[in-house]
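tool=predict chain=A
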Amino acid sequence: MPMKNGGERRGGKKGREKVFLRGTLEMPGRQPVECIVIDLSETGARIASAEAEGMHGRVRLSVPARNVLKDCLIVHRDTDDTIGVTFVPLERH
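tool=predict ok
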């Protein structure tokens, strides 16, 4: 189903929307890495990054185009460069 912003809402994934937006991922003790947010919902996201393979645990996702800043828990890997995250309460860094 098309969205008014040009995205597409997919059924069966709690309102997940295809967005393909630039973002950054931060992990404590590492430099931020660029990423592309492929799907976005109220509860999580699917994210592609060339450096996703070495990521685990918690990350912070920033998506300026949507004014999104979320702490995330990596819950699965689709491929070496694609991860699925669920949003968790923000922690102070």
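The chain is about 0% helix and 55% strand. The domain at 18-88 is CATH 2.40.10.220 (Thrombin, subunit H).
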